What we know:
By secondary structure, this protein is mainly β. Helix content is 15%, strand content 38%. It has one domain (4-87).
Amino acid sequence: MDPVRYVIVSSFLPKFSLFYCPGNGIFVMNEIPDTTLFKRKAEALAVARALERRQRKRERGLQVIQVKKTKRSVRILEEVHVDGRIWKPKLKRK
């Protein structure tokens, strides 16, 4: 019954974030579909570590952030930290 979920995000700018969808192995830009949500943080961290081992060294790292699932959408609860800057990713409006 806990609405808190976790997502894997690769964020470059406040208006440009990629969210990992483990079902089909792709990154979705600026939206968080239900298939990107993890129920447990440990699972999301394990998947993020496995993905980072596959990525090139020069690419930015992945982060696991906390979100809250509502009836109509997803609300981001944590900020993203990139190169000393902090922001909450902006999602595409429907």
